[in-house]
Amino acid sequence: MKKSSIIKKSRIKQSIIKAGKAIVGSLPILFSIVLLVSLANVLIPKSFYEILFQGNYFLDPIIGSTIGSILAGNPVTSYVLGGELLTQGVSMIAVTAFLVSWVTVGLIQLPAESILLGKKFTVVRNITAFLFSIMVAILTTIGVGLL
Fold first, then answer.
1. Rounded to an integer, what distance in angstroms lies between the CA atom of residue 92 and that of residue 83?
2. How deeply is 107 buried, as exposed, middle or buried, from its count of CB atoms within 10 A (0-12, 13-18, 19+)?
3. Is residue 38 pLDDT above 80, yes or no?
4. Alpha carbon distance 98, 71 (integer Å)
5. Which pTM was predicted?
6. pLDDT at position 40
7. In whole angstroms, what is the distance from residue 124 CA to residue 118 CA?
8. What is the DSSP string of 82-106?
9. What is the predicted pLDDT for the residue at 3?
10. Which of 53-62, 78-87, 125-134 has the highest mean pLDDT?
C-alpha cells in the first residue's frame, strides 16, 4: 500500500472519531432543548403565539428577529425549536427570521464579543446580521412560495 493512501485512511479515521465526539457532545444540549421546548409547549398557550405573530408579512419577521437576537442559541437546537414553532402555528417567515437571528445575532454575547473584536465591529456585525435575518426570511418565504 502506498504511503499516501495510508495517510488518507488515517485522516478519515480521525475525522470520523472527531465527528462522533462532536455528536455525542451535542446530545446533552439537544436533549435539554427538547425538554425546554416541551415545557414551553405546556406552559405557553397557543393563543400567545397567535397574539405575538399575527401573520403580518412585514411585522412577523421583525418580531421573530428581535426575539431570536435576544435568545441567541446554536444551530443544532434551532431545528428542533423551529419545528415546534411551526407546529404551534407560527408563520414560516417569523420562524425563519427567528432562526437566522438566533444563530447570527448575539445580544447576550455582546459584551464578550466587543472585548474580543472591538465595539464598532461588534455593533456593525450585529446590526447587519439582524437586518439580513429579516431579508433572508422574506426571500426564503418568497422562494418557498414559488416552489
1. 10
2. middle
3. no
4. 9
5. 0.70
6. 67
7. 10
8. HHHHHHTT--HHHHHHHHHHHHH--
9. 65
10. 125-134
